[in-house]
């Protein structure tokens, strides 16, 4: 759902010529070489169920499939598997990274192809609002209670003289997908600054194309996903606002690991094991950030040269009603949900 009267994000076509009007000299950047697929927005979807992803015994371990798109937050669980946390629970893991994007993870979990999937919590809310019975089994990533630690900043050019998100009225601002997480963050930032998001033209543009579009003057800002926010700041662009902090100054949950409720009810012991392994992976990643960064280039397709400078999410944020509420409230405020979901019912308990 979109806010009443607000324009939908529309795709735009870009020519990548140099901005000859810029007063600043920018170093060349090869954004196209950074193959990061950002898991920031999904639409609710449904699919017919099957048993293709059912767990099975192999070598004394129970084989499971975990679905995500290749982003830094999902790399936490890959690290946990490498450290043996799943094996300790009697599990062997196969990771699936659908090329179609995050919405395909939701569909695959609903279909039974994966036991567990990773998604932005907004996407899970939207899928549930669409009639899909999903449950969250573990946290994946959260925000920080620090405005300097934004992983989804609203980036603009200092040449434009914008001072707050209210100044985006009448401007073209890029998000990676219509109706998803980045659009919600951008609209909420405008509202919090006293502006009207319906007066902003939200355009749909892939993450690697957003910075060149800003520097060529085709857009006036974008809601960044990492590593593109870091790349933009290193190239002289600026953060207009930390959109996560605009949702709530307290830490809140951005993404979660989820499952089909029917699957958890059929085999709760299995999902308790998965839950413990994910929790151990999160704790280890917080305590060994250097090891997490070391596996990110291969998993997420990020240039190793920038992996040390990109911002990571908060992997210590718990899965609670309090940490889910800011996303739900902002999604309703911006029109991406008709109403807040029953949050306590979404958190899986055996």
State the distance separating the first and last CA atoms.
Answer: 32 Å
Name the strands of the widest sheet in spatial order: 1-9-8-10-7-11
Poorly predicted tracts of residues: 1-7, 10-52
How many whole angstroms does the radius of gyration measure? 20 Å
Helix and strand sequence: EEEHHEHEHEEEHEHEHEHEHHHHH
Global structural class: alpha/beta
Which terms summarize this structure?
single chain; 350 residues; alpha/beta; D-Maltodextrin-Binding Protein, domain 2; six-stranded mixed β-sheet; 13 helices; 12 strands; disordered N terminus
Q: Helices and strands in order, then pairings?
A:
Elements: E1 10-11, E2 56-58, E3 61-67, H1 72-82, H2 85-88, E4 91-96, H3 102-111, E5 116-120, H4 121-129, E6 134-142, E7 153-156, E8 172-175, H5 181-192, E9 201-204, H6 207-215, E10 221-223, H7 228-234, E11 238-242, H8 243-247, E12 253-260, H9 261-266, H10 268-287, H11 289-300, H12 321-333, H13 343-346
Parallel strand pairs: 1-9, 3-4, 3-5, 8-9, 8-10
Antiparallel strand pairs: 2-3, 5-12, 6-12, 7-10, 7-11
Helix pairs in contact: 1-10, 1-11, 10-11
Give a structural overview.
It is a single chain. By secondary structure, the protein is an alpha/beta fold. It has 2 domains: 56-144 and 251-346, D-Maltodextrin-Binding Protein, domain 2; 146-247, Periplasmic binding protein-like II (D-Maltodextrin-Binding Protein, domain 2), CATH 3.40.190. 35% of the residues lie in helices and 17% in strands. The chain is built from 13 helices and 12 strands. It has helices at 72-82, 85-88, 102-111, 121-129, 181-192, 207-215, 228-234, 243-247, 261-266, 268-287, 289-300, 321-333, 343-346; strands spanning 10-11, 56-58, 61-67, 91-96, 116-120, 134-142, 153-156, 172-175, 201-204, 221-223, 238-242, 253-260. The strands form 2 sheets. A 6-stranded mixed beta sheet has the order 1-9-8-10-7-11, with helices on both faces. A hairpin with a 2-residue loop joins β2 and β3 (61-67). The chain is globular, with a radius of gyration of 20 Å. The two termini are 32 Å apart. Residues 1-7 and 10-52 have low confidence and may be disordered.
């Amino acid at each position: 759902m979109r806010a009443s009267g607000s324009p939908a994000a529309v795709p735009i076509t870009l020519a990548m010529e140099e901005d000859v009007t810029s007063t600043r000299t920018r170093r060349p950047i090869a954004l196209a070489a950074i193959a990061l697929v950002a898991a920031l927005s999904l639409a609710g979807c449904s699919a017919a169920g099957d048993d293709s992803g059912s767990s099975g015994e192999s070598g004394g371990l129970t084989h499971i499939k975990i679905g995500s798109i290749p982003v830094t937050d999902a790399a936490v669980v890959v690290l946990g598997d490498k450290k043996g946390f799943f094996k300790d629970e009697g599990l062997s893991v196969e990771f699936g990274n659908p090329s179609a994007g995050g919405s395909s993870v939701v569909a695959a979990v609903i279909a039974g192809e994966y036991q567990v999937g990773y998604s932005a919590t907004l996407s899970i809310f939207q899928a549930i609002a669409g009639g899909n019975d999903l449950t969250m089994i573990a946290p994946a990533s959260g925000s920080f209670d620090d405005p300097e630690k934004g992983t989804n900043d609203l980036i603009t050019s200092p040449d434009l003289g914008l001072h707050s998100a209210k100044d985006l009225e009448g401007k073209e601002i890029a998000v990676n997908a219509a109706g998803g997480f980045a659009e919600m963050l951008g609209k909420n930032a405008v509202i919090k600054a006293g502006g009207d998001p319906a007066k902003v033209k939200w355009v749909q543009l892939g993450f690697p194309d957003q910075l060149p579009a800003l520097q060529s003057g085709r857009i006036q800002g974008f809601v960044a996903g990492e590593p593109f926010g870091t790349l933009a700041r290193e190239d002289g662009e600026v953060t207009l606002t930390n959109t996560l902090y605009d949702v709530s100054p307290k830490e809140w949950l951005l993404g979660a690991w989820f499952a089909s409720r029917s699957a958890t009810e059929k085999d709760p012991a299995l999902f308790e094991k998965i839950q413990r392994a994910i929790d151990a992976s999160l704790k280890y990643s917080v305590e060994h950030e250097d090891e997490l960064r070391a596996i990110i280039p291969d998993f997420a397709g990020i240039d190793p040269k920038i992996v040390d400078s990109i911002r990571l999410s908060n992997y210590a944020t718990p899965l609670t009603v309090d940490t889910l509420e800011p996303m739900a409230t902002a999604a309703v405020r911006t029109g991406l949900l008709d109403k807040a979901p029953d949050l306590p019912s979404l958190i899986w308990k055996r």
